[in-house]
Design a protein that fits this description.
The structure holds 2 protein chains of 2 kinds. By secondary structure, chain A is α+β, with helices and mostly antiparallel strands. Chain A is built from 2 helices and 5 strands, in the order βαβαβββ. Chain B is α+β, with helices and mostly antiparallel strands. The longest helix of chain B is centred in the middle third of the chain and has 19 residues. The chains are: A alpha+beta, B alpha+beta. At the A-B interface, strand 4 of A face strand 4, helix 1, helix 2 and strand 8 of B.
């Protein structure tokens, strides 16, 4: 199935793209998606402990199971205000 | 109980707030303005470039405002965050809360700012006097950040 992945802030610089379409197996978890992304861009792994992930407009954990056509955001810790 | 007013927005324009309205139900109104400082880690900056995940940031801000209304019994919440380039000395955020009593208003404003810095997807890129645009804080420095998916209660 396809998922849409967006990168923000420093992670966009590291990934070298702002967004991408990825084909992943059914029932892929966020943790597994991150491993796919780390294999494509090893520098992202340095951020593993602090990377935030969202599906749509809600934060999700590493156990979240990706849904077909999910809009996934990969983000560093937030710094608003 | 009167219906509470909740307004959140993200804008590229300079921030402002409407004039205070006469409201006999609100004994306290607290405005907080967050201002861009001219120094970042001891270096002079011209301002900060703010980047947002726009739709998610607005959603998260609205969620915070709604929680704050229930948690602190507020009659009004306004949260406005500026993005894009914000020059030093100008405001990047303004939070207005109103409630029956001052302790709730002060506490609510502080709570909203603390939670916003933890859960609203907005990032800063300081722009230094020499034109250098910082990529932000290093992964190491941010390792200790709180998990925004944890409880806000």
């Amino acid at each position: 199935m396809n998922v849409h992945v967006q990168f923000f802030s420093r992670l966009q610089d590291l990934a070298g793209v702002s967004e991408m379409e990825l084909k992943v197996p059914e029932a892929t978890k966020v943790a597994e998606l991150l491993e796919i992304l780390y294999s494509r861009t090893p520098a992202l792994r340095d951020w593993d402990k602090s990377i935030l992930v969202a599906s749509g407009v809600e934060f999700v954990g590493r156990d979240y199971i990706l849904q077909r056509e999910d809009q996934i955001s990969i983000m560093p810790p937030v710094q608003g205000g | 109980m009167a219906i509470s007013v909740c307004e959140v927005s993200i804008t590229q324009s300079p921030l402002d707030l409407p004039a205070r309205e006469n409201d006999s139900a609100s004994g306290a109104l607290v405005d907080f303005w967050g201002i861009v400082r001219a120094l970042e880690d001891g270096r002079e900056i011209t301002g900060i470039e703010y980047e947002a995940h726009g739709s998610m940031a607005e959603h998260q801000m609205r969620g915070l405002a709604e929680i704050a209304i229930g948690k602190f019994g507020l009659t009004k919440v306004v949260i406005r965050h500026r993005i894009g380039f914000v020059p030093a000395a100008e405001a990047s955020i303004v939070v207005r809360v109103a409630s029956a009593r001052r302790s709730a208003a002060f506490s609510a404003n502080q709570w909203i700012m603390d939670e916003l810095k933890r859960t609203v997807p907005i990032w800063k890129h300081p722009v230094f006097q020499d034109g250098d645009i910082s990529g932000g804080t290093s992964a190491e420095k941010l390792q200790g950040s709180l998990d925004p998916s944890s409880s806000r209660a």
